[in-house]
Amino acid sequence: MAAAPPLSVQGSGHSICLNTVAGLALGSLPLKTCQPAIRDMRNLQQKLCIKRRAEKKPYTDNRLHLVMSAISSSDIRFNPLTPSDTIKQFYTCINEKNLKQLSNFISSNCLFDDCSFPKPFQGKEEVMCFFEQLITSMGQNLEFNIGLICEGDDLTAGVTWHLEWKKKQIPLTRGCSFCECSIEGSRLVIKKAQVIIESPFKAGALVLTLLKFVTSIFDEFPQATEWFLNSPHVILQLFLRIYSIVLWPFISPLLGFYINLWNFMARLFSYTIKILFYISKIFYK
């Protein structure tokens, strides 16, 4: 029987040497008379396989390197699978001033409740309008620094943070956010968020005294307290009406005067700094 030549199958840019098939074909030769020929054929087959692999390896490695380079250089972000990853990428988009990517983390019916504002932002349009103003106000050097992130049940997570200017913490800017996420299609988005910011007023023991005073009034008038707690917006609107009718006509001119005064002082201070800087350049050349 004639000796079978070494076989190789080439597909998709790879060579596969069929050692088993060749071995079976060679093994069918007479053992005593063809032993040197079998050895030579096997050695030749191994050399051919090694040569083909060496020829194909640079191409495969280069192609893999190009693919990995394209992936690393692209601006593709994979949607995170956990609420903690969602929050991390959410604040990363804010720091990078990337509103387009930020909108991918906001649900269409998102409710964003920032305790610094009198009422929450409802809907994606209002929420994105708020973040657009926030990013504009942050400038180029201000960013959020993320602290602890804790996950809860039902796709919820909480995070602590503070603001930094050029990697230096700004006082009175600590805060925490609590987010509830939901799945929209194949994406994990923020459905509800509540933000609590550190108060700039450190009342200390005065808060406890005020709390004791308020609770004593609540206990003294329980029915009025229940009515107030069930409809606090009614009391607020009443106070706003009294303020606009009685106090605003007197406060508005005084407030306008102080605003104009502060603007004048700020401009005067700015001009003074510029003059001193100009004089220093003359004397310290």
TrEMBL record:
SUPFAM superfamilies: NTF2-like. It comes from the Eukaryota. The chain crosses the membrane at residues 238-259. It comes from Nyssa sinensis. Coiled coil: none annotated. Keywords: Membrane, Transmembrane, Transmembrane helix. This is SnoaL-like domain-containing protein. InterPro entries: NTF2-like_dom_sf. PANTHER family: NUCLEAR TRANSPORT FACTOR 2 (NTF2) FAMILY PROTEIN, NUCLEAR TRANSPORT FACTOR 2 (NTF2)-LIKE PROTEIN.
